[in-house]
Write a structure and sequence with these properties.
Number of helices: 24
Structural class: alpha+beta
Number of strands: 17
Distance between the termini: 69 Å
Oligomer: single chain
Radius of gyration: 31 Å
Largest sheet: 6 strands, mixed
């Protein structure tokens, strides 16, 4: 490792308060010279995780985890070394020097590309506030986008007069072709974007790397993005991220919406942590970028069929990257509305109220399974179960995977037990009587059953029932067996929740599955 990099790393770590860093994800309380909280690396209820600012390290007296700020960033955010360095540098307000040799030709191409993009943004911005951009400016203001936001994002207008072709006439044909902003046809060069509102797309450092052009009328397609280039990749670019990073770190969450206007309106109206993929397709690269900044993500797509499908796809993309520390929620907006509609009609408070109702990912998947399949039939329940556990198997974190398995098993038992076979059982619990009353009547009516199930019934029955049961002896036997099996399953699930032994966990899950099938057959 070069000496100059070592010096940079030492300077970086000297500027980082490890207490501030850790407290972004772990609630800490002061006690003496140290700060204490529950360890993020193992499950515990009593705080055994200590952080010392003077010494610059953390230590868990429960699991033995130990390290400094860089270790903590790498481990909690699942980052490689250099990504963690860049993340801490951003927190400290430092720029990471370039220590690796750069291909001079690649560097020259990059500078030329970025220079053309910057010039284009200036040209488009100028025309927005000129006479021939009046309609475009009026459209943006009518949508509620402030002039401050327009200038911050360098939103512009591309007229029909080919101003970019004229402005960039001194650039080489190859350099212009690389940006895709100026094209060449039979009649010479021309601007690719014409009569469109121009949204510059920036990288994580705020440099313009692409453009998205929006039609003002009914022209289709409504949005046109330039195709991917050497320096612009849709799957690695989130609209608004450069401006949203500070808000994400401050508010400890990221909000993902569908498009540029929604992003602008959200950021303008009190939700600076908002970003959007370019189009509704979220990628694994997008997810990794977000999870490096925060462990809490809310997907807030439009309340139409396309938005619902986008939410379901986004959940599938993020599942492999989730851990026990990740909080992913899905906000289903009212039918036919989008964030822009909510903000303009009902305001910021209403949007924040909706944010608080966002559905945790496990409940969202459960709802998808129950609405996507006919769970009143055995085949429908089977398909819903396959859907749920296929999603569980996408999760890479084994602890989270195990808890999701238990959660869905419990949900299925609590919500599906009254459907299908169980619903038709003549031995179902009478609604007007308690279990103890029914068991007492059975014991008085059928002494043979009371003797056969004496160990189970002991302490459960009322000694003097005073009435005989209306159940047949066969149905009374089924009733007892169902209660006994249900109690056993409940005890197994409690034991499974507390178990940390993988072999014991497998046994308990198999035992639960076996008795749940038996319960359906009784």
């Amino acid at each position: 490792m070069p000496q100059d990099f070592k010096a940079f790393r030492e300077e970086l770590l000297s500027r980082i308060s490890i207490v501030d860093l850790v407290s972004r994800s772990v609630p800490l309380k002061p006690k003496g010279k140290d700060w204490w909280g529950c360890c993020p690396f193992h499950n515990e209820k009593t705080a055994s995780f200590s952080v010392n600012d003077d010494k610059g390290f953390y230590h868990c007296f429960g699991c033995g985890a130990h390290g400094g700020a860089l270790d903590f960033e790498m481990r909690t955010r699942n980052m490689p070394f250099m990504d963690a360095i860049e993340s801490l540098a951003q927190m400290a307000g430092m720029q990471v020097p370039q220590f690796r040799p750069v291909d001079p030709k690649a560097a020259e191409r990059a500078l030329g590309y970025l220079d053309i993009m910057s010039t284009a943004a200036e040209v488009y911005s100028k025309f927005l506030f000129a006479e021939n951009g009046a309609a475009a400016l009026e459209y943006l203001r009518r949508r509620g986008i402030s002039d401050d936001m327009i200038r911050q994002y360098q939103i512009g207008y591309a007229p029909r007069s080919n101003p970019l072709t004229q402005k960039l006439s001194g650039k080489s044909r190859d350099a212009l072709a690389a940006t895709q902003l100026v094209r060449t046809g039979q009649n010479g060069s021309f601007d690719f974007f014409r009569d469109r509102i121009m949204f510059p797309i920036t990288d994580s450092k705020g440099r313009v790397i692409a453009f998205s052009g929006r039609a003002m009328g009914d022209e289709e397609p409504k949005y046109i993005n330039i195709s991917e280039t050497e320096f612009f990749h849709k799957k690695r670019t989130l609209y608004g991220l450069y401006f949203a990073k500070a808000g994400i770190l401050k508010n400890k969450r990221a909000i993902v919406v569908e498009g540029q206007v929604d992003t602008l309106m959200m950021q303008q109206n009190g939700f600076p942590e908002t970003v959007a993929p370019l189009g509704s397709a979220l990628s694994s690269e997008h997810v990794q970028i977000l999870l490096k900044l925060t462990k809490s993500v809310i997907f807030c797509f439009d309340g139409d069929d396309a938005g619902k499908k986008a939410s379901a796809r986004a959940v599938d993309v993020i599942l492999p990257f989730m851990t026990s520390n990740t909080d992913v929620r899905i906000l289903t907006l009212p039918a036919g509305s989008d964030p822009d509609d909510i903000l303009r009609k009902s305001g910021t408070d209403r949007m924040e109220d909706l944010m608080q109702t966002a559905t945790p990912i496990a409940d969202y998947l459960w709802n998808l399974a129950n609405t996507g399949f006919i769970v009143s039939t055995p085949a429908g329940r089977a398909n819903a179960e396959k859907f749920l556990f296929a999603r569980v198997n996408m999760v890479g974190d084994e602890v989270l995977k195990r808890h999701l398995q238990v959660a869905f098993k419990n949900m299925m038992w609590d919500n599906w037990k009254g459907k299908g076979v169980a619903k038709k059982s003549a031995a179902a619990l009478p609604k007007i009587k308690s279990e103890a009353e029914v068991l007492s009547e059975i014991a008085e009516t059928y002494p043979a059953l009371a003797e056969k199930y004496f160990e189970f019934l002991s302490g459960k029955i009322i000694r003097k029932a005073g009435n005989k049961t209306d159940l047949s002896e066969a149905d009374a036997g089924k009733f007892i067996r169902r209660l006994r099996a249900a109690e056993y399953i409940k005890s197994l699930k409690t034991e499974l929740t507390l178990s940390d032994d993988p072999s014991q966990t497998d046994f308990l899950q198999n035992e639960i599955h076996k008795y749940e099938k038996l319960l359906e057959e009784i």
